# Entry
Amino acid sequence: MPTVCRLFPPPYATVPLHGLYLQQRLHQLGTPLRPLVYANFLASLDGRIALEDNATGHPYLPKSLTTPNDFRLFLELEAQADCLITHGGYLRALHEGRLGNILQIGCHPEHRDLAQWRLDQGLSAQPAIVIASASLDFPMPPSLKANHQAVYIATGRAADPAKMAFWQNQGYEILIVGAERMVAGGPLVRALGDRGYQSLYLIAGPHMLDTMLRDGQLQRLYQTITHQLMGGEAFRTLVPGPVLGPIGHLKLRSLYYDAASHGDAGQWFAQFEQSLQPRI
Ligand SMILES: NC(=O)c1ccc[n+]([C@@H]2O[C@H](COP(=O)([O-])OP(=O)(O)OC[C@H]3O[C@@H](n4cnc5c(N)ncnc54)[C@H](OP(=O)(O)O)[C@@H]3O)[C@@H](O)[C@H]2O)c1
# Structure
């Protein structure tokens, strides 16, 4: 079984990787009035979360960023969510085979324990799914219906009415949670709280992180920092928008060192919390 070293908080200790994030019991920390919103990102030392393909300009996740240990912790966070927030771009990438499926828990034999853990905690077998999209132009993955997952589509008031009607006619609830075409963080979190959800895991990309952060909704950020300088002339980083200021100031909650994951290089698993109170 893999182990990691706890560097913070003291004392320094070697601890098992499995269960590291499950023991935080995130599913019990939020309430429908104030759901816990958390996100997880994977970055290189020079802050890259994705590189851009020179020929197409499309972003992609470099293989060298990902490791089985990081994926395990990603799934432990997912197991504690009653609702996952993804976006239209991910569903397009999933459909085209550019990204793997992360919409259900316990699909791989080595992570089956997480499916049982959810049931033991009284959580639904699979989390609800929110698809944030301004374009409303994405394919619905068949795995959502097959796993009986509640599905919501979140968009802004100015989204295309014909596309809204298309999804409503297929039985999907549309959450209008933005004044223009884009989703706004506060209205989305309130709409999900009103429906009883209390642990919301943001598995979307940098724009939804930006949306949640600027609206004062993100409470915890989990970040894996791999000890590699990646370079690359065109790349993506965590927050695409303008300077954030104090709302981007975070407090470290924990830091673990995984020395073995990248051959000679290692990685840190860091956890931060928002130092400002969430807006409700
Ligand atoms: N290293 C990591 O941890 C990590 C994590 C996530 C992503 N990535 C990578 O980063 C690259 C870019 O990320 P990405 O494509 O996932 O995400 P992105 O560029 O942040 O967002 C893509 C899509 O999300 C929807 N969206 C975002 N914010 C929205 C809002 N406020 N309201 C409505 N819709 C919104 C839009 O969908 P519509 O076009 O349907 O309107 C948009 O096209 C990818 O290569 C991805 O693999 C890396």
The chain has one domain: 3-265.
